[in-house]
């Protein structure tokens, strides 16, 4: 099964377990820019914000995929779609993930 996750799409549930915890972790990774976690500066992903929109999208997709692989290895990225209004620079990732072994 493929689950869709977007930044900030899930409310934090401190008691989450199994699939819910994994999806929450993926949403948290997507919502967090690198250097913004005081005790773990390398956590999250490094968004590219200064390139042309097509180049920026490609770089960000690669960086989001790498961050999810590193920080939540139980989830496998199967697709990332950038949705929104590229003319105004308003793109939001919609990430499709498969949960390994459906914990």
Walk me through the structure.
The protein is an alpha+beta fold and 103 residues long. The protein has one domain: Nuclear Transport Factor 2, Chain: A, CATH 3.10.450. It has two helices and three strands. A three-stranded antiparallel sheet has the order 1-3-2, covered by helices on one side. The longest helix has 19 residues. The chain is globular, with a radius of gyration of 14 Å. The mean pLDDT is 85.
Short description:
32% of the residues lie in helices and 24% in strands. The chain has 103 residues and is an alpha+beta fold.
Query: Widest sheet: strand order?
Result: 1-3-2
- Computed CA radius of gyration, to the nearest angstrom: 14 Å
How confident is the prediction overall: mean pLDDT?
A: 85
Structural class: alpha+beta
Bulk shape? globular
| CATH fold topology | Nuclear Transport Factor 2, Chain: A
> Which ranges are low-confidence, i.e. pLDDT below 50, for 5 or more consecutive residues?
none
Kindly report how far apart the N and C termini lie: 12 Å
Give the tally of β-strands: 3
Helix-strand pattern: EHHEE
Oligomer state equals: single chain
Largest sheet: 3 strands, antiparallel
The appropriate CATH architecture is: Roll
Number of helices: 2
Characteristic key phrases:
3 strands; Nuclear Transport Factor 2, Chain: A; single chain; three-stranded antiparallel β-sheet; 103 residues; alpha+beta
What's the layout of helices and strands?
Layout: E1 2-5, H1 18-31, H2 53-71, E2 75-85, E3 90-99
Antiparallel strand pairs: 1-3, 2-3
Helix pairs in contact: 1-2
């Amino acid at each position: 099964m493929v689950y869709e996750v977007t930044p900030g799409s899930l409310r934090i549930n401190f008691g989450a377990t199994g699939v819910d915890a994994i999806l929450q972790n993926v949403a948290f990774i997507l919502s967090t820019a690198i250097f913004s976690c005081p005790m773990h500066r390398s956590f999250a992903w490094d968004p590219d914000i200064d390139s042309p929109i097509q180049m920026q999208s490609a770089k960000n997709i690669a960086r989001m995929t790498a961050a999810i692989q590193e920080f939540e290895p139980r989830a496998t990225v199967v697709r990332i779609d950038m949705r929104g209004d590229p003319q105004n620079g308003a793109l939001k990732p919609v990430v499709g993930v498969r949960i390994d072994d459906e914990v």
